[in-house]
Each structure stands twice: as C-alpha cells, then as structure tokens.
Write a structure and sequence with these properties.
Elements lengths: L1 H14 L11 E3 L13 E3 L2 E5 L10 E4 L6 E10 L5 E10 L4 E3 L10 H5 L5 E7 L2 E7 L12 E11 L8 E6 L14 E4 L2 E5 L1 E3 L1 E5 L24 H12 L8 H4 L9 H12 L31
Parallel strand pairs: 2-13, 3-14, 4-15
Antiparallel strand pairs: 1-14, 3-5, 5-10, 6-9, 6-11, 6-12, 7-10, 8-9, 11-15, 12-13
Length: about 300
C-alpha cells in the first residue's frame, strides 16, 4: 500500500509542473519592510523583480564581475519578473544606477526580444521611458480575451550601461526605485504588480551589481536546506514536483543541486523525489543535514551555484 501511495503521489507530482524559483545575493526585502508598507488595498506577494546580467541564455547572475577595468565597457542587463502568481496582469517599476560609475546607454531601453514583447498585444498598454537618473516602465495586459504572464521567470526589458569609472571591488549598483517620474510635475512611478486586478508589491527585489573581481577572495559556503529543490525555504510536495520536472520535462534546474539531493547520495535522480514524498506521506526517513534548518554547503561534487533564500 505504501508503494502504491508513493507512485500515486509521483503521478500527481508529474502533473503539477511548476514555474522556477530563483534568488540572488543582491536581493533585498521590500514589501512589509519599514518605509515600504503596502499601500491602501495592496498586498505583499512572492513574485520577484530582478536585474540580471545575461551570459548567452543564462539569466542566473545579478552580479557582473570584470578582471580589469576598461573605460567605456558596455554591459547589457535584463529586467525580469519571477512570476509566482497565476494572475499577473500588469506591473510598473523604476530602475536607477550609480551615476558616479555608470551611465545608461541612450536608446538601449527596450522590450524587444523579451518574453513581454511576445505577450503584449495591440490593445494592451506598454511604456518605457529613459529619464534623468534611470528609466521606468509599465505594462497593463488589458486585451480581450484576457492574457497573463506565465508562472515562470519572464524577461520584461533590456538595457545597457557604460562603465564610466572603475567601481572597484565594492561595485556599482543598478537597482529598482520609486524615485523616478516622467517630469517634475508627474507622479513618481511605483513598484507595483497587478494580480487579479489588485495592486500588490513584491516582498523581495533583486538589484544588479557591477564590480571588479578580486583574486583570492574567500569563498563562503552557500547555506541551503536539504530537499528544498525549488528554493522556497520549505520542504513539501512542490520539491518532488520540481525534481521530476527538471529530470523528465526539461524544467528549470535547481539553483542548488545539493538541495535537490534529498537522500544525500551525491546525485540528483528520481530516487530523490521518491525520498521526499516518502518522508512527507509514508513515514520515511528525514533528509540528512542540513535539515530541517538551513546549513552550509557540504563541499561535495554537487554545487549551489546561486545565492539562495537561506542567505536572505
């Protein structure tokens, strides 16, 4: 009976294909923090706005590092929304930068080549403006029939920055802001997500950082939670779904391979999904440490490539 239960749950898991989860080391708390309380009628949500630096098709890094400063180096960035809600219909945000080290390349702000560009239709509202201090953008999917953002990491804008002065190892930030407006008489653009018609604010924002790489900088083991394959800082059926999705449905990879190794045998395979389900529903053994609390990377062959929710 126990085996039948596990197989049933695996079948259920395979049908619940999930969107991606992602966290970065430049993440900061936003909604609910002092000074950033929700507006009237707003709510805090798990959807995340991110600044990332593309490396081919890889959109995993919020930090761009260079070995040697070269004046006027141009660095492309991508703005994306890690969509967790299933009814995201619109958003607005501003992006500013460290003007002492960076300049925004004029005319570089665009939605061309992004997921948003494929989603927007003629009757929808979309705008992006370069202004003094950065740029802002907004979109409202108002067309009929209703269309929404897919539950995944959606690219929504691209831009480029020129490194005008050496930011050194401390780096220069590209960060989300609510300080920008079209002109001095216009209202400032809020960081806002419209979900099922309700204004919402992301709990977390991920800014970008451009800095010089320092040789010999100490590598701090990345804390993670065993069997938290989708990096939401908890272990549940969603983690088994994530593993099966990655292995058999070309789903997004786990940010931390060690976290997806539920049974701690040094590999990520179907046995980890079964182990996860067995522990939760059939009295199976608990995952090995770090569990049930976050702990450091054990230094094995598997990697934690990106800073995780355990670091926040």
């Amino acid at each position: 009976m126990k085996g039948i239960t596990i197989l049933f749950l695996v079948g259920v898991a395979l049908d619940l294909l999930m969107g991606s989860a992602h966290a970065q080391d430049t993440a900061r708390k936003f909604c609910g923090e002092p000074g950033h309380v929700p507006c009237d009628g707003c709510r805090c949500v798990d959807d995340i706005l991110e600044v990332v630096f593309p490396n081919g098709d890889d959109l995993s890094s919020s930090v761009f590092q260079f070995e040697q400063f070269s004046p006027d180096t141009v660095v492309p960035v991508v703005i994306l929304v890690d969509t967790k809600s299933d009814r995201l219909q619109g958003l607005s945000y501003g992006v500013t930068h460290d003007a002492s080290h960076l300049t925004l390349v004029r005319g570089s702000v665009t939605t061309l080549g992004t997921d948003l560009d494929d989603l927007v239709e003629a009757e929808d509202f979309k705008v992006e403006h370069e202004v003094n201090g950065g740029f802002f953008a907004a979109v409202a999917l108002t067309g009929i029939p209703t269309h929404i953002f897919a539950v995944r990491r959606n690219t929504i804008c691209r831009a480029s920055y020129r490194i005008a002065a050496d930011p050194g190892s401390e780096g220069a930030k590209i960060e989300f802001t609510e300080s920008l407006s079209f002109n001095p008489d216009s209202p400032r653009v809020n960081i806002d997500l419209t979900i099922s018609g309700v204004s919402s604010r992301p709990k977390v924002l991920v800014d970008g950082l451009i800095k010089k790489h320092v040789d010999g900088a100490p590598i701090v083991p990345e804390p993670f939670l065993r069997c938290d394959s989708n990096d939401d800082r908890k272990m549940n059926i969603g983690d088994a779904v994530w593993i099966l999705n990655e292995l058999f449905y070309n789903g997004p990879p786990s940010a931390c391979e060690e976290a997806a190794d539920c049974n701690g045998d040094g590999a990520v395979q179907i046995s980890d999904a079964i182990f996860c389900l067995s522990y939760q529903f059939s009295g199976g053994p608990a995952p090995p440490p770090p569990f049930p609390e976050c702990g450091p990377d054990g230094g094995g062959a598997l990697e934690c490539k990106h800073p995780l929710s355990c670091s926040q």
